[in-house]
Amino acid sequence: MAGLLAGRGLRVRAASRRASPVARSGAVRFDWYDPETFEEALRGVDRVHLVPPVGDPVPATVMLPFLERARASGVSRAVLLGSSAIASGGPAVGQVQQALPGLFDAWAVLRPSWFMQNFTGDHAHARSIREHGTILTATGAGRVAFVDADDIAAVAVHALTADSDAGGDLVLTGPEALSYDEAAAIISEVTGRPVTHRRMAHEQLRGRLAGILPPEFAAVLAGLDRSIAEGAEDRVTDTVERLTGRPPRSLRAHLEHAMTAVGG
Prior knowledge:
Radius of gyration: 19 Å
Largest sheet: 4 strands, parallel
Oligomer: single chain
């Protein structure tokens, strides 16, 4: 996303724990848990894109002090990466979303559905597909309108740069809602390798995740799968096309693009 912004001729500061350079962007060290890194990240900045700390069940504890400092330093617009599964005032990032209207003149919360990159990157699903030809979930026959991260980035650029307000509460999805059975079939067709969806019970998934994650976080993730099984993510929105002017990428197109990128 930083590259997209810089490509528009905007001055961009990429803030991360490693201060990793991003195309045509200035890089500074930033850590949600180290307030001493806040000042340099905010110097001369009038708008911010916020990615919550990964795996923190209560991100508001560290994010709200940063946002208050951001407002005091002159930031007038904030765009937060949230989740379609969590509304304003809900748990985790929902507490941060709830605070935004009282802090900034313009704000948006991007609430994407599940990432298509979960099937092709370093996510547990992608590793399981590569190593075992399986996807393990407790979603049953529930459907998800998987969304490409590139489409999320395009909406984020719009929210940060639009002349009007930033957009408020924005639920982002791909063009079609699919069950994991259907997603596995598409992956099989595109890759030429058999992939199946292995359905697990909610308690079974929670126990499996608790072996590698804190129990509270494992319970949250298993609960999200159960919500999908109950139909919570079976929806398609027009947000990507309405704000970017082009339709969102389909799962099949994403997979084909990913295979081309790796010479597959």
